[in-house]
């Protein structure tokens, strides 16, 4: 298809360079006028006043005339060139800033479109989460029918409130024992199985879901991780700043403010912007986030004293803890 030579050019706005017409622009004309005025004034002055009749100056007379006439003219043109360079730099800076803003908007829009259209990668990861949830439910059913023996190295302590709330009375006056999940299973469950074939991860997840003190946090974490994945936000892509265990202990003890602000160590701008935007627009997402934050805070407060520094650091590296850092940062709970 032949192009129309008379078609108007495309207006690129700030991205299009201004047409540089051949010849002098306003700055050049101003410098030219100033140079002519100074040259004329210098010539008139030298013609009227002269340099005297003495021979003391000798050959320096010609040098004085040259400096008096041409040096100020050179300074005028240097100033004109500097003004033109500053204008070009300012235009390039505005064009670069506009380009960065446009790229940021395009990135956010593409992320939202990708979450809406459900690309293959998003579908695959969500399918893995759904399959993991189905396997967990199946194993829980099997566990209820024929529980397998568990011999953990160390277990989380049972608080009196947890026993009173989560140990229902059964028929015939019998009481059901409350299983205690080991610290290793607790950490593994908060990180969730790595793949659909992670048998050890699913076994730890099953034992954690059987513990009424840990199960609410695992389920709340699963809900928010699924919702975040819909916006293309995955905890494996985030690299939080490490926080010392004593800071986590202060937070678990109820301290807030600058002393514990380092817990919100997620600095990924796109994830923060997408999560914050969805918090304002999606009521279901907002309710799930608040429920998850309360559950994490309560579980951490109940178990922080029983965890060593290494175990607490391992908890901080889990996907659940990273989600807590991200969502806690956008809700300003630190």
Number of domains: 2
From the alpha carbons, calculate the radius of gyration and give it in angstroms: 36 Å
- Report low-confidence residues grouped into runs of 5 or more: 143-153, 160-178
Distance between the termini: 62 Å
- The DSSP helix count reads 12
- Biggest sheet descriptor: none
Beta-strand content estimate: under 5%
What overall form do the CA principal axes indicate? elongated
* Helical amount: 55-70%
Query: Which assembly state applies to the chains in this document?
Result: single chain
In total, the number of strands is 0
Reading the helices and strands in chain order gives HHHHHHHHHHHH
Overall mean confidence score, pLDDT: 76
**What class do helices, strands and sheet pairing give?**
mainly alpha
Architecture overview:
- This protein is an all-alpha fold.
- Helices cover 64% and strands 0% of the residues.
- The chain has twelve helices and no strands.
- The chain has helices spanning 26-49, 60-117, 120-145, 160-166, 183-191, 199-210, 215-229, 245-252, 269-281, 283-303, 309-316, 319-331.
- Helix 1 (26-49) packs antiparallel against helix 2 (60-117), helix 3 (120-145) crosses helix 6 (199-210) and helix 9 crosses helix 12 (319-331).
- Mean pLDDT is 76; it is low at 143-153 and 160-178.
Write the layout of secondary structure elements.
Elements lengths: L25 H24 L10 H58 L2 H26 L14 H7 L16 H9 L7 H12 L4 H15 L15 H8 L16 H13 L1 H21 L5 H8 L2 H13 L3
């Amino acid at each position: 298809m032949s192009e129309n030579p008379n078609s108007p050019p495309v207006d690129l706005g700030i991205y299009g360079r201004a047409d540089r017409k051949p010849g002098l622009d306003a700055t050049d004309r101003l410098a030219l006028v100033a140079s002519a005025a100074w040259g004329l004034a210098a010539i008139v002055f030298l013609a009227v006043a002269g340099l005297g009749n003495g021979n003391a100056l000798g050959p320096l007379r010609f040098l004085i005339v040259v400096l008096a006439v041409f040096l100020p003219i050179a300074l005028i043109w240097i100033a004109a060139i500097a003004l033109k360079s500053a204008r070009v730099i300012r235009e390039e800076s505005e064009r670069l800033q506009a380009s960065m803003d446009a790229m940021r908007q395009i990135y956010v829009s593409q992320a939202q479109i990708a979450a809406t259209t459900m690309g293959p990668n998003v579908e695959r990861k969500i399918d893995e989460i759904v399959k993991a949830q189905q396997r967990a439910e199946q194993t829980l059913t099997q566990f209820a029918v024929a529980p397998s023996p568990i011999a953990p190295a160390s277990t989380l302590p049972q608080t009196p409130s947890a026993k009173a709330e989560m140990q229902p009375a059964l028929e015939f006056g019998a009481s059901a024992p409350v299983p205690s999940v080991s610290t290793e299973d607790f950490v593994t469950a908060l990180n969730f199985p790595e793949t659909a074939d992670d048998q050890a991860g699913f076994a730890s997840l099953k034992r954690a879901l059987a513990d009424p003190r840990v199960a609410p946090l695992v389920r709340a974490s699963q809900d928010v991780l699924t919702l975040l994945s819909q916006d293309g936000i995955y905890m494996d892509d985030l690299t939080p700043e490490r926080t010392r265990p004593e800071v986590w202990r202060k937070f678990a003890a109820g301290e807030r403010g600058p002393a514990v602000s380092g817990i919100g160590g997620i600095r990924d701008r796109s994830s923060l912007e997408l999560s914050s935007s969805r918090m304002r627009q999606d009521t279901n997402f907002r309710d799930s986030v608040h429920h998850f934050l309360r559950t994490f805070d309560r579980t951490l407060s109940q178990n922080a004293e029983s965890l060593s520094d290494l175990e607490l650091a391992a908890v901080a590296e889990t996907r659940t803890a990273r989600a807590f850092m991200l969502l806690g940062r956008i809700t300003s709970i630190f």
